[in-house]
């Protein structure tokens, strides 16, 4: 790994937001799923959570443009498990869902630990999801249609979160702990070697100042 690439990886990781994430519930179309991942990378989301109860995880499409390599994906066996794990980490979970208690997505304080739940392309979030989350958010619309494509809606909400966090200076502070930073930068910089060490059950070697092993 050349020093310039090492510095680039460190720069990106230092802006990753460990307490801003997305949960996808039965988003099964590869181009939509990949577009959400790509937006998460652009906004600085460190990891994404996914539940697919009715089908297998969608494979990435060319829309991802390689962003799937830079955003950690956690799959969960069911929605209750996913939401419980995030709420245990003190994240507030907001579902993009049209309901009587839904509020304009811009009224949420995204500088607080936040997870955004996006539902299936055709049916939106499930009734179970709507009951389990901390709140509902909507994107105001003034046309004939009542909803956006799920990946577009996710992008709109995530960039509002980015706007708020930029204004609060949160991208200027390192969110990830040192141990995680060192682990991930090794995995990003040396994916094949990292896989070999994981297979052996051995810790990664430390990197030198220029990023070499």
TrEMBL record:
Family annotation (Gene3D superfamilies): 3.40.1280.10
GO molecular function: tRNA (guanine(18)-2'-O)-methyltransferase activity; tRNA binding
Keywords: Methyltransferase, RNA-binding, S-adenosyl-L-methionine, Transferase, tRNA processing, tRNA-binding
EC class (word): transferase
Catalytic activity: guanosine(18) in tRNA + S-adenosyl-L-methionine = 2'-O-methylguanosine(18) in tRNA + S-adenosyl-L-homocysteine + H(+)
Domain of life: Bacteria
Xref: InterPro entries: Alpha/beta_knot_MTases, rRNA_MeTrfase_SpoU_C, SpoU_MeTrfase, TrmH, tRNA_m1G_MTases_N
Record-level GO BP terms: tRNA guanine ribose methylation
EC number in record: 2.1.1.34
Domain RNA methyltransferase SpoU/TrmH type C-terminal: 163-213
Classification via Pfam families: SpoU_methylas_C (PF12105), SpoU_methylase (PF00588)
Domain tRNA/rRNA methyltransferase SpoU type: 20-159
Binding residues for S-adenosyl-L-methionine: 139, 148
PANTHER family: RRNA METHYLASE-LIKE, TRNA_RRNA METHYLTRANSFERASE SPOU TYPE DOMAIN-CONTAINING PROTEIN
Described function: Catalyzes the 2'-O methylation of guanosine at position 18 in tRNA.
Family as reported in the entry's similarity comment: Belongs to the class IV-like SAM-binding methyltransferase superfamily. RNA methyltransferase TrmH family.
Protein name in the entry: tRNA (guanosine(18)-2'-O)-methyltransferase
Gene that encodes it: trmH
